[in-house]
Each structure stands twice: as C-alpha cells, then as structure tokens.
Specification:
Layout (H helix, E strand, L loop, with lengths): L4 E9 L4 E9 L3 E5 L6 H9 L6 E6 L2 E5 L4 E2 L2 H4 L1 E4 L11 H11 L9 H7 L15 H13 L5 E5 L7 H11 L2 H4 L4 E5 L2 H7 L2 E6 L2 E7 H9 L8 E12 L4 E6 L2 E6 L9 E7 L3 E4 L10 E12 L5 E8 L2 E8 H7 L6 E6 L3 E2 L2
Parallel strand pairs: 3-9, 3-10, 7-8, 8-9
Antiparallel strand pairs: 1-2, 1-4, 4-5, 5-6, 10-11, 12-13, 12-15, 13-14, 15-21, 16-20, 17-18, 17-20, 18-19
Helix pairs in contact: 3-5, 5-6
C-alpha cells in the first residue's frame, strides 16, 4: 500500500459553516479524522467519496484526479472505488444477511482484489447470521454486516463514517475487535471518522485533527492528540502514553506498563500479553506534583519529571502543567495558588504522582 496517498485541496461553503482544507498525506493502515461534532468530518468524507462536490478545489487519490473544479473533472462515486460505511448501516431490509452480502460480492466479482466471500464472513463472524433478517439484528450485528458488505464491494479505499456512534457501550465493545486489524487483514487503506478518543487511539495509525472546517494537524495518533486534541467531551485534559506491557501481577491484579524511562502500574488487563504495545490514558486531574520523592504514600506511580510548560487560564483557578517524563509527556491540573506556593518553574525537576490510568488500546 506504499502508493496510497491522497491530496485534498477543497473549499465548500454552507449557510453558517465552511470547509477549507489543503492537506496531502499517506493512507497506509488506518487514518483517523478526529474532531468535535460540527467540525466538518462527515462533509470531508463525502467530498472524498464523491457524494458532495467542493465549490472549489482538487482531490487526487494516488495518480487519479477524482475532482478538479478548474478543469471541470468530477469522477462519480461508483467510479472512485471508495467504499463508505455510515453509522446507520443502510442494509437492504428486504434481503437476508447472506443476500445483502452476495449483492455486493456479485457486483464486484470480476475485480482483482484478494477479498473473498468466505474470508469476510469468517473475519466478521457472520456464519450464524446469514439467514437472518437485517431488521432482527442488534445494532452491533448490523454494523458488522454493513462493513462486511462494503468490503465485498472490493473497494480501493474504505471510509468508515462514525460507524459506532449509534451504538451503546456494550455494542461498541462487541464490534471494536473486528476493526482492530481490518486494514492489514484486507490489505486496504482505511479512513475512520470519529469524535471518540478511545476508538481513535485504539484503531488509528495517524490522525487528522479537524476543527471548524480546518485541518489543524496530522501525524502519529498519540503525538497529535496530545498536542492538539487530548480533551474529553467534558473538556478534561489528558495525555496518551505509548508503552509496552512489562509485567502482570496476578496476586494483586495489576499490570505494569513501561513508558519512556519509567513504569506505570494499573488494574490488570488480561487481554494484554507481555511485550504488547499499548496506549494508556492519564487524566490531568489524576496527576499531582511533588518537589521531592514522596515516601509512605498510597500512590504507586511516581515518575521523575521536568516541567515543560504552563497553560494558565486568566479566569480559572487551575493551570495545566506539562511534564516531560523521560520523553513521554503527561499533564497535571494544579491550582495556580499551588504553583505559586511551591515555586514551580519551567525546567525544574519534580516528581509526577499518577493516581490512576486506563488502557485506551
């Protein structure tokens, strides 16, 4: 997939909103488009798929010009080879699951793709559902069928537009494992749209941050989210740390993750094996700062750190302190009064006390 690259230079205006994007990036693996509701994520997907036309601009996939308003080129959706899955699945209600899948399979059977019917059915665990009516499926089951049907159309590029947003927590947990290696398994570049941090960190190799119709950054997922997008829906700041599972303690039900030059101990995740690469989330409210290494304290995760940055709100009692822990950066939410009382300053050596952390991938 080394030739997979997309160049987007597009403008489109609505009554109270506009999109103006100029980005060029590779699409190997899974690329996420991340941003809050109303950022323009779905509109960008529609522009790529050919379901919407830009007012002005040019979109190029590999060496194929999909759209160029200056030369009046516009390749319709069915000729682009981009498969799209929306949040509602859009299965044919009058056809069984098997017939939904065969509909796509037969229409693309002559394509040179290595995607095969039996492989897709197996990958999404659909054998027991083939005779079912789509209207009798759960939300998670419908989305598995929808993604499988789109794969059987043998696309060159798979676009997943918030495919889990209509599902509850349990249904999301049910379907996420099927998406973990979808790009690698089917040798297919994927663009995944979401405003959910946990989904993005679990699935995406790189992430494009989109806000107010503008691309703010693109790069490795953890790095970009830490710099531009690592806030929850309630605006709580957090850090994403890439690490490796180094130990499990069955007696105390704890997992140890090595990050940079330190380690973080957290509740055991039995799905993770020693040596697995993981991403963990540390909320700024769960980090305290000490000028000395504390003794006889219940907080187990104490990391040597250097103060890298302060973010102070003029009308807020709090400041977000960015701490460099041997190359891994975490954030601590501390009162401005505490910063003053402790005499904290940029470049100062301190200790980060991490009260809790959670697996995001």
């Amino acid at each position: 997939m080394s030739d997979n690259r997309i160049d987007i230079n597009a403008k489109i205006a609505f009554t109270d909103f506009d999109i103006d994007i100029s980005e060029s990036f590779p699409l190997d693996g899974c690329t996420a488009i991340f941003g809050p509701s109303g950022a323009g994520k779905s509109t960008l997907i529609r522009l790529i798929a050919g379901l919407s036309r830009p007012d002005k601009g040019r979109i190029v996939w590999r060496d194929d010009i999909w759209c160029d308003t200056q030369t009046n080129i516009f390749i319709p959706p069915h000729q682009r080879g981009a498969g799209v899955v929306f949040q509602d699945g859009r299965l044919f209600p009058h056809l069984s699951v098997e017939k939904n899948l065969h509909y796509a399979d037969k229409r693309s059977a002559g394509d040179a793709s290595q995607i095969r019917f039996d492989n897709v059915v197996s990958a999404f665990d659909l054998s027991s559902l083939l005779s079912r009516d789509p209207r009798a499926l759960s939300g998670g089951e419908r989305q598995r069928v929808a993604i499988a049907r789109t794969l059987l159309s043998r696309p060159k590029l798979l676009l997943l537009d918030e495919p889990l947003s209509a599902l509850d927590r349990n249904r999301k947990a049910e379907i996420l494992p099927y998406l973990d290696d979808i790009s690698e398994r089917f040798d297919l570049p994927v663009i995944y749209v979401s405003h959910n941090i946990a989904e993005i960190t679990r699935l995406a190799d790189r992430t494009l941050i989109l806000r107010d119709g503008r691309a703010r950054a693109i790069g490795a997922t953890a790095e970009v989210l830490n710099e531009y997008g690592a806030v929850t829906e309630s605006d709580e700041k957090f850090a994403l740390l890439q690490g490796v599972v180094s130990a499990h303690d069955a007696a105390y039900q704890l997992t140890t993750v090595a990050i940079g030059g330190g380690e973080i101990s957290m509740p055991m995740n039995k799905k993770q094996s020693i040596g697995d690469k993981v991403v963990i989330r540390v909320g700024a409210r769960d980090v305290a700062i000490s000028k000395t290494c504390p003794d006889a304290i219940s907080i187990r995760n104490v990391l040597p750190a250097t103060i890298a940055k302060f973010e102070c709100g003029a009308n807020s009692p709090f400041s977000i302190v960015t701490l460099d822990c041997s190359g891994s950066q975490i954030s601590a939410q501390v009162t401005r009064a505490a910063i003053n009382d402790l005499g904290l300053d940029i470049g100062q050596s301190v200790f980060a006390l991490v009260k809790s952390a959670s697996f995001d991938a």
